[in-house]
Specification:
Layout lengths: L11 E4 L7 E4 L4 E3 L2 E3 L6 E4 L4 E4 L4 E6 L2 E5 L9
Antiparallel strand pairs: 1-2, 3-4, 5-6, 7-8
Length: 82
Amino acid sequence: MSGLCKPCHSTCDSCDGPTEKACLSCASPLILQGTKCVGKCDKGYYSGRESQLCEPCLHTCSRCLSKTNCTESTKEPVSGAT
């Protein structure tokens, strides 16, 4: 091991490795989803305004504006149900 630090991926502000999937924080205006910096959260996640993180929606939501504001449900209506 050389003991030299490698630079973070260009999308990362801080990281624990050189790849785009090793980010700990993101360069503005990107937001962190897991360990990757993205411009927009994936389906099933929402952007936490204060934390700059993509947070998961409730398991019953495929899209949401916040943890408790579901805009699209994951459950499909059962055919023939009343």
